[in-house]
Amino acid sequence: MPDEWERAAGARAGKRNGWYEDFMADPYSTLGVARGADEAAIKSAYRKLAKQLHPDRNKDNPKAAERFAEVTRAYDLLSDKDKRAKFDRGEIDADGNPTHPFGFGGPGGGGHTYTRSGGGAGPSDFDFGNGGADFGDIFEGLFGGGRRGGGFQGFGGRSAPPQRGANVSYRLAVSFIDAATLAPQRITLADGKTIDLKLPPGVDSGTQMKLAGKGQPGPGGAGDALVTIEVGTHPFYTRDGDNVRLDLPVSLVEAVQGAKIKVPTVDGPVMLAIPAGARSGQTLRLKGKGFSKKSGGRGDQLVTLQIDIPANDAALRRFAEEWSDDRPIRAALGV
After folding, report:
1. pLDDT tens sequence across 18-46
2. Were 75 and a residue from 46, 52, 306, 324 both cysteine, which residue would form a disulfide, CB within 3.0 to 4.6 Å?
């Protein structure tokens, strides 16, 4: 059975044995995808697992909540192109931490050297150049001890502070209208608890919210929950900065004579006055019916009129035959 030093060296070489398997799970294996999987396959695998393991569906199974957190962390890493590339190159581990933060196991690692003095490995069995860093906490984690005579204090007599727990990443889908109106959102954490969130002004896809102390527990306190917002699309609204755009069909009669018509907004229907002689493509403005701004206030809703003429209407055809318009409406186009 290998001693602790050989097991640590084997872990750095990529072996999956002993404690190392628990410490650094492979995100590809966690999601059940191949290393060459594309973004669509990764997203599909995550959605399938998240649906199966979501705490709301497994209230009597705490293991499901733990597994849900694992697949969420794996997806967070693999869905980030930069993090995924670094993981594939072996530069970071599955938690996004550098694999060789002090130069262990490769060239260009900061100039620290280490030697083994024989026998059982421990903090005093290694010689580290003269970097002056405190490795007490590192060796305690690697070798399961090393505190002698009241505590291993490394170089300079300073004890390493206890580490906080890991952060946990979540993705929260928010509807277009909820994002525009800053409607409260509810999210279920990996431990099964639910939290009501207040969306920030200017929220958009990619906005990240931090829930302090809602991550993994640790000796130095719990980590944070990092919630990334994904704003959905809408069947007829589009976003233009802090404004909302809407193409509004109007009849020929409404455009010619003018009218007051009901128009949808993110806050509910309102009445809009269409001026007589309105043109297709003309844009009207509804103040304060857009997204909340970071600077305060709200954007507007921009309503673009689209005159809708019925096809094969006999009365409209007879009218057109009796009416003429001799204006040079295409003169500006040179024709």
Report:
1. 333 333 478 999 999 998 999 999 999 99
2. 46
